[in-house]
Specification:
InterPro entries: 7TM_GPCR_serpentine_rcpt_Sre (IPR004151), Serpentine_rcpt_epsilon (IPR052854). It is a multi-pass membrane protein. It is found in: Membrane. The protein is mostly helical and 340 residues long. The longest helix has 40 residues. The protein is elongated. About 3% of the residues have low confidence.
Length: 340
């Protein structure tokens, strides 16, 4: 038998005044969900438009916002159904519909729980495939990791619906442990890249491609370390709240978890934006587009995207891909011959 998980039980509300208070609360919650959905879709657009991170990281991050949106739509459907039931004499909810929405929401929540593990695996590949990770995009990696994320989340959602007791609490405790371990592993990855960088400075055995990837890994770590820590903390708080809600199954605990999720989906994009220069510029640009009184929008000079040009040693711009490739081949040959 499958149990409902994180679902508001209308039939347990006996007091009429309490029912009215819940109805008012749900109307407010619906508007908050809609605002949060628009906020999430906006940052999904920013993620897809701005090439701040490696394509694999961007793909995984975009999927995170897609599942936020799916969770928000399912959550909205739950609230609308419950409000409709509250206005009728029969407050019983169709079990099949309740189970479907509960499964979808729980799957999306476990996607958020496991996302830090998936992002950490991506950083491991970026660290140990220094030679070709940037030149060969390896987008199959991000798609494979997303599939793994979905499979883990679906299995976990089914597990907590089937086992509504100690076993599901053990799984949620495991989620907390995974997030703490993933956050620690990201610091280990940083130390590994830092040692690679020190070796590259003292020994001339690394190619230009390796040196570039090491510097990119270090630069990206400085931008993602705070979002990673934030995800780990919020995931642990949410998992602990879910564990408590399974022990004390009340409508009030469900509403508390809903509030935590609302804050979660709002805070993560904001923290990521604060740590990403290109994201900040894109958000500023989008705000000016939305609130500009002029019909024709002209991009301010201070936030225009920089044009990157590759020049040879004489300062002449290299115009074709072949020229650029030949130039870097020559630099590589000079590096190996002269060992400077």
């Amino acid at each position: 038998m499958m149990h409902l998980f994180m679902f508001f039980n209308v039939s347990t509300v006996e007091d009429a005044r309490t029912l009215i208070n819940y109805r008012i609360m749900f109307h407010v919650e619906i508007w908050m969900i809609i605002i949060n959905l628009l906020h999430t879709l906006f940052f999904l657009r920013v993620t897809l438009n701005i090439k701040q991170y490696h394509r694999n990281w961007t793909n995984i991050q975009a999927f995170l916002y897609i599942q936020y949106s799916l969770h928000g739509l399912t959550w909205l459907a739950q609230r609308l159904i419950i409000i409709c039931r509250l206005t009728e004499d029969n407050v019983e909810l169709d079990n099949c519909l309740a189970l479907i929405t509960s499964l979808i929401r729980t799957t999306c929540i476990f996607c958020s729980f496991y996302i830090l593990l998936i992002l950490t695996i991506e950083r491991v590949f970026a660290t140990f495939f220094l030679e070709s990770y940037e030149t060969v995009r390896k987008q199959i990696l991000s798609f494979s990791l997303i599939i793994l994320l979905v499979v883990l989340s679906v299995l976990s959602a089914l597990f907590v619906h089937y086992f509504n007791g100690v076993f599901s609490n053990m799984l949620i405790f495991l989620v907390i442990l995974i997030n703490i371990t993933a956050a620690w592993l990201n610091n280990v990855i940083y130390e590994v890249n830092r040692k690679f960088n020190q070796t590259a400075q003292t020994h001339n055995k690394y190619s230009l491609g390796r040196r570039y990837q090491i510097s990119e890994n270090l630069k990206n770590w400085k931008m993602i370390r705070i979002p990673i820590l934030t995800i780990a903390i919020l995931n642990s708080i949410l998992a602990a709240a879910m564990c408590i809600s399974k022990i004390f199954t009340t409508n009030f605990t469900v509403i508390i978890i809903d509030f935590i999720i609302l804050m979660y989906t709002f805070i993560i994009p904001q923290i990521t934006m604060r740590c990403s220069p290109l994201w900040r510029k894109e958000v500023q640009r989008s705000k000016q587009r939305l609130f500009s009184t002029s019909k024709v929008f002209s991009e301010p000079a201070e936030i225009q995207r920089p044009r990157i040009e590759v020049c040879n040693v004489f300062g002449k711009r290299l115009r074709t891909t072949q020229d650029v490739s030949e130039h870097f081949d020559n630099l590589q040959k000079m590096w190996e011959d002269n060992k400077f």
